[in-house]
């Protein structure tokens, strides 16, 4: 056991020494290409000579962007959606039906009329999700409340005369627009 601890200590010390000696500097500096700067020759000649310089070790994040930088928003063309083909038509089950007209109330309704607010809501034989599903009502369907309307489950009658329960969160006394 002592040999194992001694071996681990020796390995960690060697690793620390190797990293201390060879691990200095910026490891990404070698992967950056050198930059080219132009300067005038010392003899006063008219031409410019390229000089290779190493990149800066630490670039300031608060530096102003270069003047010749082009913003991406000016380079990106506007996306235009084109839909080739014939004009859109309503599907056969919705043809001739106006969405603004509320559904008619159930025939012979005597209780308050409520409207379904969900897209497609199940109504059940009893007041819980564990009870059997009797049917489903589309959004905007008018139903007659047969009991109190301020409970979690409301006893209702639909336009076909079926009696069941629907969750009160999917019912509203106001007709849909």
Automatic annotation (TrEMBL):
The UniProt record lists the SH3b domain at 111-175
Annotated region Disordered: where? 26-113
The record's section on Pfam families has:
SH3_3
Quote the PROSITE patterns the UniProt record gives: SH3B
Q: Which InterPro entries match?
A: SH3-like_bac-type
Q: What is this protein called?
A: SH3 domain-containing protein
Organism listed in the record? Paracoccus marinaquae
Organism lineage string: Bacteria, Pseudomonadati, Pseudomonadota, Alphaproteobacteria, Rhodobacterales
């Amino acid at each position: 056991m002592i040999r194992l601890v001694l071996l681990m200590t020796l390995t960690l010390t060697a690793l620390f020494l190797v990293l201390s000696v060879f691990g200095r500097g910026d490891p990404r500096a070698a992967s950056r290409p050198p930059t080219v700067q132009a300067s005038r020759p010392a003899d006063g000649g008219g031409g410019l000579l390229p000089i290779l310089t190493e990149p800066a070790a630490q670039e300031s994040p608060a530096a102003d962007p270069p003047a010749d930088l082009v913003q991406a928003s000016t380079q990106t063309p506007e996306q235009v959606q084109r839909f080739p083909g014939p004009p859109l038509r309503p599907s056969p089950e919705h043809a001739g039906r106006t969405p603004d007209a509320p559904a008619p109330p159930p025939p012979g309704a005597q209780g308050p009329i409520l409207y379904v607010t969900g897209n497609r809501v199940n109504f059940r034989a009893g007041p819980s999700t564990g009870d059997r599903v009797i049917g489903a009502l589309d959004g905007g369907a008018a139903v007659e409340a047969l009991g109190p309307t301020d409970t979690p489950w409301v006893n209702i009658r639909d336009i076909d005369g079926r009696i069941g329960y629907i969750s009160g969160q999917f019912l509203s006394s106001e007709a849909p627009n």
